Amino acid sequence: MAKLRYFDARANVEQPTAQVAPHSEFLRTGKITRQQSHWLAAERRYLTHDEVAEKTGRKLQSAGEKTHQHINGFHRSIQFPKMVFHRTLEDSPHLGYCHVTAARTKFAQYEAVSWAFYIANFYADISDNDNVFEKIDMRYSRMYFAVAIRPGEHTPEKMTIDRNVRGNGLLFRTDDPQVAIRNVLLLGARNEQLREIVRQL
């Protein structure tokens, strides 16, 4: 796959486009138009992958922090640690995901599951290997998902997806922020009474 190139689109929208051709304006008024929009198009300023990753990271970080505030603002009995950090995809730095929080809970038939909640700025399937994402779909601007996690054994990562839970480790995945927050609150509720309150949302 060819390496993606990014350019700064803001440089091209600063000047309005001319409505009248410069030569016809000269014939009509006798004046030479000196507006920059009539000159040759300026050279596009291409962004490095590091610059794109930095911009993407700032947006992901901000979304992660706001989401954490929403989750912890629901009920004082359901609080999650703030563990916000992000990663961008290596060959596509305009795409990335943000870790929001992690906890341990009883889930379905599993007694104790450690899990992590993420936001991504794309929608994709969780793969069965270490690449994590496959079939990336850009039609959705966000994906909210939670995966079961366990300490990494033979990987450089401290934590890795626990694929013993549900076959692929995926607890939920959605593009709806309200559904995502409800699912995270259900995972974090310590008893059935709190879960019932959350279900009524």
Residues in helices, as a percent range: 25-40%
Q: What is the approximate shape? A: elongated
Overall pLDDT score: 81
Low-confidence stretches: none
- Compute the CA-based radius of gyration: 24 Å
What is the count of DSSP helices, taking H or I runs of 4+ residues?
A: 5
Beta-strand percentage range: 25-35%
Polypeptide structure, described:
Helix 4 packs antiparallel against helix 5. By secondary structure, the chain is α+β, with helices and mostly antiparallel strands. The chain is 28% helix and 28% strand. The radius of gyration is 24 Å and the shape is elongated. Strand 4 and strand 5 (110-120) form a beta hairpin. The longest helix is centred in the N-terminal third of the chain and has 24 residues, at 49-72. The chain has helices at 10-13, 22-29, 49-72, 177-188, 192-199; strands spanning 6-7, 46-47, 85-88, 96-107, 110-120, 123-126, 133-137, 143-151, 159-161, 170-174. It has two domains: 6-46, no CATH class; 48-199, no CATH class. The chain has five helices and ten strands. The mean pLDDT is 81.
Write the SSE topology.
Layout: E1 6-7, H1 10-13, H2 22-29, E2 46-47, H3 49-72, E3 85-88, E4 96-107, E5 110-120, E6 123-126, E7 133-137, E8 143-151, E9 159-161, E10 170-174, H4 177-188, H5 192-199
Helix pairs in contact: 4-5
Pfam family, one: DUF6656
InterPro entries: DUF6656
